[in-house]
Every structure is written in structure tokens, then in C-alpha cells.
Amino acid sequence: MAKNEKPTKLVLKKLKLIITVVDRPKGEFYMDVIGGFEVNCQMLMSGQGTARSEIVDLLGLNPEKAVILSVAREDRVPEIMNTLEEKFETVRNGKGVAFAVPLSSIIGVNLYQFMSNNRMKRGE
């Protein structure tokens, strides 16, 4: 480090885990929507609804679900949730549910930087 250069500093931002459940065919679509908010870490899993087959048939539900786990900076979560809510209402067959829970700790600076999309900045 040069004599006049300030040490690098990592600006810490809290993270949240967003859990989104949608019909399986819409899983990739919603991953793309969430990814547009600087979300680097997402995982898509298959899920199965718990309603009895009579109720599924009666209501015309699709029991096959996509469960998306996304790690996002806390400051981006309200915007992500508002966008998801809008998409749930406007996308054909795009209904779903989403909620966020805080992450209390992450082990490793590099992992944190990747998950928060937060790189060390020179001169801060």
C-alpha cells in the first residue's frame, strides 16, 4: 500500500434470505426477476404442495412448486418484494408467495462480499 493511500474498507450491509414459492413452470422467470436486483446467490428447488388431491382438483391448483432461495441486501428487499407482488398480480398463472428472513451471520469475508454484491472499495 502506498504511503498516502487509505486502507481499504468493506462497507457492511445486512442480508436477508428471500423465500419465494411459485408454480414450477414460473420458477426460472421469477429467478430472473429477482436476479435483476443485484442478487448473486439464488437456488431453485422443486417443491410439492400439501393440499389433498380433492382440493387440488376442485380449485384447479398446480401442486408442483418451485421454491427459490435468494440472498439479498436488506436495502434491496422492499423493492424486490414490491416487484414480486406486482408480478404475482399481473403475470398470467404467476401467483405465488414470498417472504424474507434476516441472516444473522455469514462465515468468511469473500462469501459475504459475493452474497451482498459488495466489493472492497479503495480510498473509503
SSE topology:
Elements: E1 15-23, H1 27-35, E2 41-48, H2 53-59, E3 64-73, H3 77-90, E4 96-102, H4 109-116
Antiparallel strand pairs: 1-3, 1-4, 2-3
Structural write-up:
- The protein has 124 residues and is an alpha+beta fold.
- The protein has a domain at 38-116.
- Helix content is 31%, strand content 27%.
- It contains 4 helices and 4 strands, in the order E-H-E-H-E-H-E-H.
- The protein has a 4-stranded antiparallel β-sheet with strand order 2-3-1-4.
- It is elongated and about 75 Å long.
- The two termini are 14 Å apart.
- The mean pLDDT is 84.
- Kindly provide the radius of gyration, computed on alpha-carbon positions and rounded to a whole number of angstroms: 19 Å
Biggest sheet descriptor: 4 strands, antiparallel
Helical segment tally? Answer: 4
The global form is: elongated
- Name the structural class: alpha+beta
Please provide the ordered H/E string of secondary-structure elements. Answer: EHEHEHEH
| Total beta strands | 4
Low-confidence stretches: none
> How helical, in percent, are the residues?
25-40%
CA distance, first residue to last residue = 14 Å
Strand line-up of the largest beta sheet: 2-3-1-4
Strand content: 25-35%
The overall pLDDT, averaged over residues, is 84
